[in-house]
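Quarterly update from the structural biology core.
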Amino acid sequence: MIKPELHRRYWLIELISYWEGRLTTGHLRQFFGISRQQASKDINQYQQEHTGNLEYCPSRKGYLPGKYFNPAHISADVAEYLNWVTGQSAHTMPADPGYRLEHTILLPPARKVSAQVIRQLVHALRHHERLDVDYGAVSSSDRDGRIIVPVRFVNTGSRWHLRAWCEKAQNYRDFVLSRFHGTPTPEGKPLAPLPPDTRWNTHITLHITPDPRLSPEQQQALIHDYAMNNGRLEINTRAALAGYLLREMQINTKMLDINPAAQQLILANQDEVKEWLF
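Predicted structure, tokenized:
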């Protein structure tokens, strides 16, 4: 049975090497406060127990994932890496079996995201560089490629996006990670300073209320459910995220469901914020 502390180190070894493409002893030293000797020992031990997963590359002065890397301590779901690297969750060991409560978690099908894509996106984001990408958007059959400058990762609630400057559109766009194809090609630094991301920098307030077609008792249930103040829930958000937020709350701004019990909530100040919605 592997010790919990060693399991956490193995988890980080796999997480960084798999999604970022290069691991050094510095990673373990930084996150666990251990010596270089101990970090080297942990990596060597990992290599012995997981043959072929890591290969040392002298030219890059680090350990790279092997060609047939087989994760044993991570899920290979990109959300695990992004939740960790963005600080939304910390890796903790599962509780003792005798302490766990009976529970069930609904897990939607995972979207296929290539580690090769993530490695290039992370590198470009950290070094503020351009990438030539092949992206298959649902709204277009055009896959001739485009040049983007990654800015940040965005979790919209149901999936992860990359927000980036798109030279083809001459605007900021959100790219679904699972729709990238092939391996992005580095294109160096941006040709000019990026313009301000107006939609990202603009903050708006959404006024959410119960659908007025509901009975007073039904409306009161929703008011209690969302802890509304005077029958209204005010949500401050970036304009770029407003559409995603409404979608997660199942609020349709284009048409009302014929069944108010299905609609439940409405956007009361739609006229004020409609320029920022999808």
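Residues 202 and 239 are 6 Å apart (CA to CA).
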